[in-house]
Write a structure and sequence with these properties.
Number of helices: 10
Largest sheet: 7 strands, mixed
Order of helices and strands: EEEEHEHHHHEEEHHHHEEHE
Shape: globular
Helix content: 40-55%
Radius of gyration: 19 Å
Number of strands: 11
CATH architecture of the largest domain: 2-Layer Sandwich
Structural class: alpha+beta
Distance between the termini: 25 Å
Number of domains: 2
CATH class of the largest domain: Alpha Beta
Length: 298
């Protein structure tokens, strides 16, 4: 059975695309997949009821991504891949990467191909490029490897260790987000006003480096403050919606140590850091039925 985790970025989104570090976590909610030989190549996605055939010039990203994935296996039989998706799409939780990782993992198993999780992450980048144009690589890396890690584009993941688990609450705004569009928006801002945007990236990098120290020290109060500051900078880059802002404010008012949007922005999800698990469950009630707890051990 193939598996790809969902992910959340704790700090550093967008700046990571332009060479700065980011901190991400892999969560245990994601995508499971199986693969078997068949009469024709097909990808089935539940619960959406989709049946996708590979087409390198197709109009749908899934058609092109599936074709790109299959191209990694030049000598193989036709395959049917069935995936069960437990993440909302376009929500900043790395859904597309999780599907790609799970699908490749399942195909590897069906074809008796041995590959490390790091190698699996690298292979899944061909899938991610179809969806996101110039992906940082952090989604497929965390989907395959999991844990908590510092990531910089083009460099190996640097796992972070702590003796205290992170009690995260993930809330979905109900608004779909396009990573490709949001990345392009920041790139336009960078071209139009490089001084302002580069200053924002530099500030985010400082927050990320301090967050690394806070995680390793188990200082979640400091980490929560850093999340809030990162949210403010991302808002200044016009990435946050009023709904995400409201959810972050509600989480802080209900006892979260910190809260921020996560992922590309323009919709999608927010995250809140709770002091303990019982408080995380209470935050879920505040944030609505689509919110869930992700306890992550660093």
């Amino acid at each position: 059975m193939g598996f790809g985790r969902g992910k959340v970025i704790l700090l550093g989104e967008h700046a990571v695309v332009h060479g700065c570090p980011a901190i991400a976590v892999g969560i245990e909610r994601g995508v499971t997949a199986s693969a078997s030989t068949a009469e024709r190549n097909i990808l089935r996605l539940s619960p959406w009821g989709l049946a996708i055939e590979p087409d390198p010039s197709g109009g749908e990203p899934l058609e092109r991504a599936f074709a790109a994935a299959l191209a990694l296996y030049p000598e193989r039989p036709a395959l049917e891949v069935s995936a069960e998706v437990e993440l909302p799409a376009g929500a900043g939780l790395g859904c597309s990467a999780a599907i790609g990782v799970a699908a490749l993992d399942a195909i590897d198993e069906a074809l008796s191909i041995q590959r490390s999780r790091t190698e699996l992450a690298e292979a899944a980048l061909v899938w991610e490029r179809i969806f996101h144009g110039n992906p940082s690589g952090i989604d497929n890396a965390m989907s395959a490897v999991g844990g908590v890690a510092l990531y910089r584009k083009g460099e190996p993941l640097q796992p972070l260790r702590s003796n205290k688990p992170l009690h995260l609450v993930i809330g979905y705004s109900g608004e779909s987000s396009s990573t490709k569009e949001m990345v392009a928006s920041v790139a336009r801002q960078l071209e139009d006003d490089p001084k302002r945007v580069n200053k924002a990236f530099e500030a985010i990098e400082v927050l990320v480096r301090n967050a690394k120290l806070a995680i390793e020290a188990g200082d979640h109060i400091a980490l929560g403050q850093l999340l809030d500051l990162n949210h403010t900078i991302l808002s200044s880059l016009m990435l946050c919606t009023s709904k995400l802002d409201e959810m972050c404010q509600a989480a802080r008012a209900a006892g979260a140590l910190g809260a921020k949007m996560t992922g590309a922005g323009g919709g999608g999800c927010m995250i809140a850091l709770a002091p303990k698990q019982d408080q995380a469950l209470r935050l879920c009630e505040v944030l609505g039925q689509d919110a869930f707890v992700a306890e992550v051990s660093a």
